[in-house]
Amino acid sequence: GAVDDVAAEHLRWAHGELYRHPLSGIARAELLRFGVTVHGPEPGAVLPPVGEADLATAVRGELSGYWTDALARPHLWLQDVYVDVGLFSLARAATTLQDGRLITKREALPRLAGLGVDADLVAEIARRREGRPVALSARQRLGRARHVRLVMARGISALTGG
Q1: Alpha-carbon separation of residue 19 from 15, 22, 36, 102 (angstroms)
Q2: Where are the alpha helices (DSSP H) in the chain?
Q3: In this predicted model, what pLDDT tens digit does every residue of 57-109 receive, in sequence order?
Q4: Nearest-angstrom CA–CA distance, 100 and 114
Q5: How do residues 117-136 score in pLDDT, each as one tens digit?
Q6: What is the pTM of this model?
Q7: CA–CA gap between residue 43 and residue 156 (Å, rounded)
């Protein structure tokens, strides 16, 4: 009965751990379009449909909620995970809002430059995605954090009209 409530928390696996988290409109759309059933009913038999307007609303909500809140916490952007996931989320959101498509992180990577992400940072993210280590000094992390927060703030503003 909680599946219709987008605020209800469900067990999820993400970023290498199991935790309780709401199943967002974006996650629901991904499950409905690309979900693989291992056991039990297909996602479409359990989840209500997510139309284009609902998906766009969910994407804008994620940008103006979670990611805008994260921008107010500068220390987060010193961490590789926030840099990578934040920028991928921005590129994926831009594509979804522009043409209604959900894309993978792999598809999002070459789109980062078009959002104003520095070429060296795109290469850094690609190395991490390949499992290769990336060593940064504290000064480099600070400069990267400033750059990413600026890209994110501009991108969020452009995509949400704010």
Answers
A1: 10, 10, 20, 24
A2: 25-34, 43-46, 52-62, 68-71, 80-99, 105-108, 119-129, 138-160
A3: 999 999 999 999 999 999 999 999 999 999 999 999 999 999 999 999 999 99
A4: 18
A5: 999 999 999 999 999 999 99
A6: 0.90
A7: 30
